[in-house]
Amino acid sequence: MLDHNDKQHLQKSLDILQQNIKVNSLQSMVERLEMISRQQGLRFHPGGTGNEWFISSDMFFLELLIDSEGIVQEVKIQHDGKTGQQNCPEIITALQNHEFADFSAHLAGLVSTYALNADKNIKSKVFIALQALEADLARSEERRVGKECRSRW
Question: What's the half-sphere exposure (Cβ side, CA atoms, 13 Å) at 142?
Answer without folding.
Answer: 6
